[in-house]
Specification:
The protein is an alpha+beta fold. It is 24% helix and 19% strand. The protein has a four-stranded antiparallel beta sheet with strand order 2-3-1-4.
Length: 147
């Protein structure tokens, strides 16, 4: 009994296979993001960004996180990257670990405007910092006609 081909009705083809003519020059796997980047603005329009410093912002965020998530929220590491006072890119820029990003957003959304303290609204959220700096990525590839 021949056991080399368990399916004799599916005999192997006698045609020679063509060699693969496509070549991979390079490949890259995009790793998952480590951070979630956020741009926050004060919820109260009378709050001036000029009066904010990193300590005030950190205390306000800690209050929101601990109110919504307790000690787990207070343990979320928050890196304040920049506080920009003027221009269209004004606001508080920060980053949190990617796995805590959803909980951070939920904490800010649930405690916004609850009391008279400093509260924030999320203007932008992204897993990639370039999206925060240039909201229109197509503009990076347009040619300038200014001479």
């Amino acid at each position: 009994m021949d056991t080399s081909n368990p399916h004799p009705q599916l005999a192997p083809s006698k045609r020679r296979k063509k060699p693969n003519k496509s070549y991979t020059l390079s490949s890259h796997v995009l790793s998952p993001p480590r951070w979630t980047y956020l741009n926050l603005v004060p919820l109260n329009p009378t709050t001036k960004l000029e009066s904010l410093d990193a300590t005030t912002v950190r205390l306000a965020l800690l209050r929101a996180l601990s109110t919504y998530l307790g000690e787990h929220g207070a343990a979320i590491p928050v890196d304040i990257l920049s506080i920009m006072h003027e221009g269209p890119q004004s606001g508080v820029y920060l980053r949190v670990p990617h796995e805590d990003g959803t909980a951070f957003v939920a904490a800010l959304a649930s405690t916004g405007g609850v009391d008279a303290g400093l509260s924030f609204r999320i203007r932008q959220r992204s897993d990639w910092p370039a999206a925060m700096v240039c909201p229109d990525p197509q503009a990076l590839f347009e040619l300038s006609t200014d001479s």
